[in-house]
Amino acid sequence: MKKTGIALVIGFFLFSQSCDEVDELLTFTIKNQKEFEIENQFGVDTPFVVPTPDVNSQSSQTFESNNTAASLVNEITLEKLELSIVSPDDFTFSFLKSIEIYISADNEDRVMIASKENIPEDATVVDMDTQAQNLRPYLIQETYDLDFEFVTREAFSQDITMSADMEYKVKADPL
Predict the structure, then answer these.
(1) Domain span at residue 12?
(2) Residue 92: its pLDDT value, please?
């Protein structure tokens, strides 16, 4: 009887370890980066939208290199979105009051994926507050669109180039 109990405990331990390993193999990260420009034509306290050119997700290649395919992806969530100012070099986010970021893709609705209120005036990088939602329909496509909706706190006299760095967590089944 003791041997059976020990065998069951060892079997359960090995099974739970292998499940954890499979989960790790089927969870990976997609990183995307997009630069865009804000022209200096907007007034203070006026919301304005800056659309970006298509973001190439390179999803097919990423899925393939992780031994899965788009049809086997269960969930994709935005884990991190960081905005930074690329130029001018000495600029901070002092001109911005708030930011909302939306995603859209072919045959998919536009939805908010991140936002930030009360942006510190001395910040050169802003970690956005991300929304907990499954973005699978957007990221399994080869391209998607991002729209940045800004509300300014002060006018600015130069065009500003920004970079959005995104990290998505993917959970998928194996091939």
Answers:
(1) 2-172
(2) 93
